[in-house]
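hi support,

uploading two proteins for the ticket. first:
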Amino acid sequence: MASRNIFVYGTLRRGEHNNCLLDESKYQGTYETEPEYELRNFGVFPGLMLNGSTSVRGEVYKVNERTLEELDYHEGHPTFYRRMPIKLKSHREKVEAYVITNHPSYRDELPIMLSAYSSVVEPPAHNRLVLGSIPSGRI
């Protein structure tokens, strides 16, 4: 069976809830795309879109055919996401990613994310409590 390099940038990354789908895959490292994409916020997951001007950070995994079939099903390929070749800054082999291509109206309706996705949301600095920062008698 042939293996393929898959770039993941959202819930499939290490530490995210869908990374278990890559248990049989070999982690290749962290990479960035060429600055030709946009990462859009779909609420609980991101979507990589073409024709942007951002470099998106993610991870590359070498996956077998069975895992590729599972990922295709999970990502809704080819009706929601489309698995297609992408350009990375420093990866020499062919790499594919799941890209939103079938829904051009999403480009204007969804907010742009920064260059990396995390499901862990850091509260704004003014809402964070620092241990020992509450004066005694003020709780």
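and the second one:
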Amino acid sequence: MSGRTALGTRGNIVDAIHEHDLVGLKRIHGATGLLHSIGAVFGGGTWMHLAAAHGNPQILDWLNEVGFDLDQESSREGDRPIACAAAEGNAANLRWLLKHDVTLDTSASVRNPLFAAIIGKSPECVQMLLDAGIEATVRYTSPTMKDMDAMAFALYRSHYEGVGTRDLAILVARHLADGDVGKIGSLLEDAQERARLNGVPTLIRLVPTTDEIARMRWDESGALILE
């Protein structure tokens, strides 16, 4: 296959995944297993990574049937398909992957699906990962962050992205504190200090008061519905 033909076919595969066109995807793959010979080349990931982010569970299921690994690490960062689903807020795909017992890799922040769900601003994905037992207290120090766990990461991003990301930090704290309002407040205050270590101005308060936390309510997906 020529480079130009491969490039055109790659674009067709991308379109089929984005459009949830399983029939078209099967037709491209054909009897020769074409998807295995054309790399996805998106961040070092596979077609499973792309489908986890932008496809649907039916496409994930079919890719798994034809030999694509649900737990494949990307060649660049080592992230797995579940992190791609979380980063795009694709709750249906995240739910499907969790049912298939994929790895919840917390060995680095770029591989951590909980961090990815925070980037995706998805309370539903955050809640699913917490319910699945992901380690929510692991902290990372690297050239881009210092002593950062999921709560501090969400608060750090809330300085730039607004209250919606802050609410994800509250959701994680609520889970860790088992609903204890005082402990939620304590966890968030500690996370706020670590967000400040990473560049958030000291004068900016990122977390609600204990009284504000006591008035908060969440729906089943983890979204804050009353404050």
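thanks. also noticed: Residues 1-7 have pLDDT under 50 and may be disordered.
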